Each structure stands twice: as structure tokens, then as C-alpha cells.
């Protein structure tokens, strides 16, 4: 909580930016979906179970967070 007080109003945390990026990538590419119905780039393999889908999303979030932190 101490870090939040040091952030200026309107600034976003890396975790929030990474979450938005993850949602955008997952929705745009169908990353980790159980069925592939999108056009264009298809994400890594399809998940056969809900827990596999969740793991795909967590991996994607970690990659997004790493990319956001490297950018700053």
C-alpha cells in the first residue's frame, strides 16, 4: 500500500497495464482457447480443460508484466 501513495494521480501500475495488455492479446488472438474460431494469428495450443486455459492466461500475464517492466 505504501507504493500506491507514491504514485501520481492518473499514473497506472505495471500490473494494471500488463493485465490490460493480457486481456487485449487473449481476446484478439484467442490465446489458450478451447476452440479456435478467430481469423488470423492463433495463440499457442488449445486448452482442453478450464485449468489449462487458466494456466495459459497466467503465463501470458507473466509475459506481459515482464514486457511492461522491461519497457520502463
Written account of the structure:
The chain has 72 residues and is mainly alpha-helical. It contains three helices and no strands. Helix 2 (14-29) packs across helix 3 (50-71). The longest helix has 22 residues, at 50-71. The mean pLDDT is 78.
Structural topology:
Elements: H1 2-6, H2 14-29, H3 50-71
What characteristics describe this protein?
72 residues; mainly alpha; 3 helices; elongated
Unreliable segments (pLDDT under 50, ≥5 consecutive)? none
What's the count of strands? 0
Distance between the termini: 21 Å
- Mean pLDDT reading: 78
- Going by helix content, strand content and strand pairing, the class is mainly alpha
Rounded Rg: 15 Å
- Give the overall silhouette: elongated
Query: DSSP strand (E) fraction?
Result: under 5%
**Multimer state:** single chain
Order of helices and strands: HHH
Number of helices: 3
Main pleated sheet? none
Q: Give the helix proportion (percent range).
A: 55-70%
Amino acid at each position: 500500500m505504501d507504493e500506491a501513495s507514491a504514485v501520481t494521480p492518473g499514473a497506472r501500475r505495471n500490473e494494471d497495464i500488463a493485465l490490460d495488455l493480457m486481456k487485449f492479446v487473449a481476446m484478439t488472438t484467442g490465446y489458450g482457447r478451447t476452440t479456435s474460431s478467430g481469423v488470423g494469428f492463433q495463440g499457442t495450443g488449445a486448452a482442453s480443460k478450464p485449468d489449462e486455459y487458466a494456466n495459459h492466461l497466467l503465463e501470458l500475464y507473466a509475459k506481459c508484466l515482464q514486457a511492461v517492466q522491461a519497457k520502463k
